[in-house]
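Subject — a protein and its fold
Encoding — discrete vocabulary of local shapes:
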Amino acid sequence: MMRYLFALSFAAQALLAPAMAAEFGTKEEAVAMVKRVKAQFKKDGPETTFKAVSDKTTKAYHDRDLYPFIYHLTGAQKGVNVAHGARPALIGKNLIDLKDQDGKYLIREMLDLANGPGHGWVDYKWPNPITNKIEDKSSYIEKLGDYFVGVGIYRQ
């Protein structure tokens, strides 16, 4: 009887895991979304791209818990958010001194990554737009001219 229950439990987990995983974006999907933002930026320029990223009805940039964000990379505007797919209230704010709940300067780390190797992953804590809870997040960052673009996944 115990073996039967164990086997049944294992089978249920195996069947439900893919369905649960589909609720959340993957690293590959985050990277692909960054590439879409970069392609639009190259084709249409900054203003059109910023508007599309910040417009929640633009399906290419709003998929489950995946959304892009864009910040100024250099100069007097360094650290200013210019587009945000989940929190439009951040647009226009300089967040260079923003810390997550563990005290990590996440925007500074993203700026350093974009100004250094030009791309990579940053781990931090951030509010999940679906659950409204602070969760562990990893964001893929790429340099985008005078900006950087990022898309993150919430680590389950």
